[in-house]
Amino acid sequence: MLEFFSLVVAIIALIVARKAFNQTATLRARLDAIEATALQAGAAPPPLAPLQEVEQGLAASPSVAAEQPATVGEIETAAPAAEAQDAAPAAATDGAATPPPLPQPQPGFEERIGTRWVVWVGGLTLALGGFFMVRYSIEAGLLGPGVRTILGGLFALALLAAGEWTRRKENVSAIEPLPIANIPAILTAAGTAVAFATVYAAYALYEFLAPATAFILLGMVALGTLAAALLHGPALAGLGIAAAFVTPLLVSSDKPDYWALYLYLAIVTAAAFGLARIRLWRWLAVTTIAFALIWTFPCLECGPSMVGPHAFHVIAGFVLAALLVVCGFMFGPAADDDRIEPISSGSLAAYLLGATLIVLQSLHADTAIIVFAILVAATLLVAWRAPAATAAVGAAAALVFVVFAEWAVRGNPDMLVLLPGGPLPGIGPAATDASVTVHLISAAIFAGGFGIAGFLAQGRSASAVIPVVWSAAAVFTPLALLIALYARISHLDRSIPFAILAVLLAAAYGAATEILTKRDHRPGLPISIALFATGSLGALALALTFALEKGWLTIALALMSLGTAWISLQRPIPFLRSLAAILAGIVVLRIGYEPRIVGNAVGTTPIFNWLLWGYGIPALSFWAGSYFLRRRADDAPLRVVESAAILFTVLLVFMEIRHTVNGGDVYRATAGLTEVALQVCATLAMAIGLERLRIRTGSIVHNVGAILLTAFAGIAAAAGLMVLENPLLWPIDVGGAFFNLLLLAYAGPAVLALLLSYAVAGRRAASYANTVAAAALILALTYVTFEIRRLYHGPVLSRGVTTGAEQYTYSIAWLVFGVVLLGIGILFNSQRARLASAVVIALTILKAFLIDMSTLTGVYRALSFMCLGLVLVAIGWLYQRILFRRQALPAAPAAEPGA
């Protein structure tokens, strides 16, 4: 039996070996083909040593080949890929390419449990075991408080010693991210947790330790945990930083020592930043900054008298962040060239925010202002040296504005009277406020520092973002400070000194713009030039606002938009076009807040009042600005400015009409026939103007504007003139005969609508022009009818009974009106006028058969039908003899003989 099994095994081995040799031969043939192709392409042939080794191994151990058939299959699969890539040979090092590492298999469920979860649960269990042992000893009364504390400390030391022993045993001093749980780190974490709990129990439960001693011991445990994290990894660092910042909450005192607290926090922050720098743990730096900033809030409740320790806290944190966190500065991590790094900028901005809170909470104490100014200056210096912190410059500019804006509002509570509920509680000057002199000096330093640094920073970076941030801060900060100081010192009244300062600032920005324009192109330079140009225009607008009164700010902003459009023509910077549109949008929002521009000071003088300046000058500015912008392109900014120009023109007309008709009250709840008539006439006139203008410009804004105005005029005429303010329906006094309100309300719109129909004829759809012409016909016929009623009933048309003579007059007037239209159509060869005539005469016929036949009696009925008949016959004759006269047909030629 044994021999039989041996024979079977030998046969199987022979078959497997034969198959392996065949596969090897196939592989060699393919490799020979690859070598030949490589030689033809001029490349070195691949070495054959590995293949020979494979052959020898297969020949010597056929059983191995039988056990691993997939290896040969993989080689066969890889061969075609090698043939496909032989045209692009890779450069080899030392004659042979390094094979890529094989992917590591993912750990299975069992491996996860055995290498990770069990260890983590074990560490937690050890810590809980220590706690439960202490609890049991308390409940059973086995040990006294002193012994319990000593045992807890010994257990903590034992865990720490075990963690250190296992670390040295496993030789993992430089911890790498391991796929298994770190047993030494877990033991050390459990030991530090037990030590922390032991110290706290000795202080809080048994009163063995004084607050100062407990505070020091807890801090030592936390710092020791951070130090151990150098060896045991990030988990222990997280535990240490949490314990370090929670320690001050655990140790309470009736008389807290803020100097000791902030000195401790400075030490903790330094340790955490140092650890984060050594191990490059960004999360640890962010967590430390967040905890340090949080510790600023509860301590601010102590009032202005504690500015000193609070200032030390933010200064120490700022210095440590600048030294250890900011990339590319002093001891910070290496920085990418000319790139803004969020944590570098955010760390400085966080401590600047803390300094801002101290200033606001201390009611702008002198010391707080000085500390804030020092940190802002330090931010500029750090960002100048390290581009990674450039975003902190923008944050500093914003916080400077917050400080001075709050100071301005605090000194002017009246600025908040429009808030719901009135001014905020606590708003108003305080005895501890910093002097105006300190704020003026600080503002001058800030304005000069940001402005000069922002100008000098242009061209220093290969990045486009960094110079733009500097220039934006350079433009925004001085303007914002000027506004805040003006509001606080001049209380928003006229101030020639501030106007002079604004003019000087505008000149400085203008000079910077010209200097930068002459420089060679650098990344971000066009946007920076646009920002400085914007600052110049903004300063000029402020100068007008400071020097003039009331609504001149609206006018100044509109003129600023015009100036920006003109500058964009002289200096083709794309951003300037967008800026002109933005300024136009701001002016639109401004009038939305108060349409009267200057409130009750508009006055009652018709036309020549503040509405003329407040709407007229912006309208002219936007029309001129759109002219300048159109000379270069028809784009979105141009359309915004054109829309603003149309809007202000329409609003000027509407507001002036409403102001004049209502005696200066533009907020009157109702409108009369006079106002509606004027609005309709003005709207139609503006629509005609836009129709003419759009032919020249081809602007979509002018096109849409003309359509909207026409639609508005139609709605106002239909709803207002025909229904809501119809003198036939309501008792409205229309005035004397012929020269009265009817002439304005119906004849005027009829003529304007007729002119509009001819303006759009052939340039819009025929239905559009015919609709406008039909509206003109309706208004004209209404005017004729109402004038006749005015002759019979006096100025109030809604009173009295309609007599037969009046009905007959209507018929005759309509008939005459239709004949006149027909005559105009024949004289000017206008088909539209003849069709209108047909409509009017058709209405007259309907009136004759539906109304005159039933209401007229006697001679009026006869005369009505006789006149109508004569006119209809005459019209037929005109059409036959003049309009559609048939020409005599030419005589047929005589037939030729013999044809």
Describe the structure.
Residues 83-108 are annotated as: Disordered. The chain crosses the membrane at residues 117-134, 146-163, 183-203, 215-246, 258-275, 280-298, 310-331, 343-361, 367-384, 391-409, 436-456, 468-489, 495-512, 524-546, 552-569, 576-593, 608-629, 636-655, 667-688, 700-724, 736-761, 768-788, 808-828, 835-853, 859-879. Keywords: Membrane, Transmembrane, Transmembrane helix. InterPro entries: DUF2339_TM (IPR019286), UCP035905_mem (IPR014600). Residues 83-97 have a biased composition (Low complexity). The protein is mainly alpha-helical. Helices cover 73% and strands 0% of the residues. The chain contains 31 helices and no strands. It has helices at 2-40, 49-60, 62-67, 69-84, 109-140, 145-170, 183-204, 211-232, 234-250, 258-279, 282-294, 296-299, 307-324, 342-361, 366-385, 391-411, 436-456, 465-490, 496-517, 525-547, 552-570, 574-593, 610-630, 636-661, 673-697, 700-724, 741-760, 766-793, 804-827, 831-855, 859-883. The longest helix has 39 residues, at 2-40. The protein is elongated. The N and C termini lie far apart (131 Å). The model is unreliable at 1-18, 47-97, 109-120, 172-181 and 416-433 (pLDDT under 50).
- Number of helical runs? 31
Quantity of strands, as a count:
0
Which outline best applies? Answer: elongated
Q: Strand pairing plus helix content: what structural class? A: mainly alpha
Radius of gyration over alpha carbons?
Answer: 46 Å
Overall mean pLDDT stands at: 77
The level of helicity is over 70%
Keywords: Membrane, Transmembrane, Transmembrane helix
Protein name: DUF2339 domain-containing protein
Pfam family, one: DUF2339
InterPro entries: DUF2339_TM, UCP035905_mem
